[in-house]
Predict the structure of Flavin reductase like domain-containing protein.
Amino acid sequence: MNTYDAAMRLVGLPATPTSRGQELQDPLTCFPSSVVLVTCGQGTDGIGVLARSFAILSPASALVAWTIERHVAGASAVEQAARWEAHALAYDQAELARRIAAASGHGLADISLRAGANDIRVLEGSAVTLSCERVTSFACEDSLIVIGRVSGFVRSDFPPLIRHDNADAISINIGGHPLGLPAETTATSLSYLLGSAFFYLYGQMRDVGGRLGYNNIEMFVITALGERGGRTRLEIETLLAYSAHPTGLQAMDDLEARGLIESHDAVNGVLSDLSYDLTPAGRAVFEQAWQAGLRVETEMASLLGVPETVALRALLYRFVGKIDRYAPAAWL
C-alpha cells in the first residue's frame, strides 16, 4: 500500500478516483487558496505552470510543496529543475492566470519577470515571489508533488488573488466587531455602514466644491459631465432626482453662462434633448475635484491598508455594476 492509498483509507475515501471525486469538487472550493504561478528555466527554455495546490510544510525549515497534474506540458521540466520561483498572483492578475491555464506549460516569452533583490526573478505585479531550491519530487496518482526550500523572497503591497467557491477573491484581514448575518444591530447593518461612509466621503468632496466656489448641484453636474460628456438635459435631471438632489436645472444655465459647460442644440428642438459637454474651463474644475477624490482614496488606504482598500473598491464596483441596470440613468 502506498502513501496515497493509506491516506485515502484513513479519511474514508477510495484510493482510485470515482464519481465521488466529482462530488467533492464543490465542497473542496470552500477551502481558499492562493493562485500560484511556478516558473523555472531561462529564455526560450523557461516555463511557467499554475500550481494545482501550494502548501507550507515547515516554516522553521523553510520547506514548501506544490502540485501539478503529471501529464501537463512542462511537468517533466519543472520536476527536474534545480531551482524555481513560486509567484503568488496579485488581486488583479486573474486574466493572466486564465491565459496561462489555457496554455498549460506556458513559455516565459510573454510573462514579465524582472530581477529583484538578490537576483530573484520576480513576476511583475505579483503579491510575493519565493525563490526555492529543489529538495525532492515524487508522483502520486495523477499528481506530481514537488518539495523545495525557500532561499529568498520578494514581497509587494499587493493583496494576493484567492480562489474560493470557484470565483476570484481578494485576501483581506477584517478585524474589530464581527459582522454576522443578519446584522445584530443597526450599527453593523450595510445600510448604516454604507450611509456613514457616503456622508464622510460626500462631506470631503463638498468642501472641495465650496472652496472652488460651486454649490452641490453645480459640482454634481460638472462631475457627471466629467465622467461622460454628451449627456442630455433630461438625463442630468434624472440623475439629480435619482440621487435625491432638487431637480431644478437653473444650475445648467448658470454653468453655461459662466463658461464651464456648453450645450448642443437638439435635432428636434426639444429643450430636454439638449446635450452638454464641459468646456476647457469646466474640465479644469473637474480635474481639481478628481484630484481631491484621489486624495480621499489615499487617506482611506492609509486608514484601511492597501488590501482592504482594494477589496472595498472591488466589492463596490461589483455592487454598483449590479444596481446600475435598475437605475433610471447610468452614472458612467
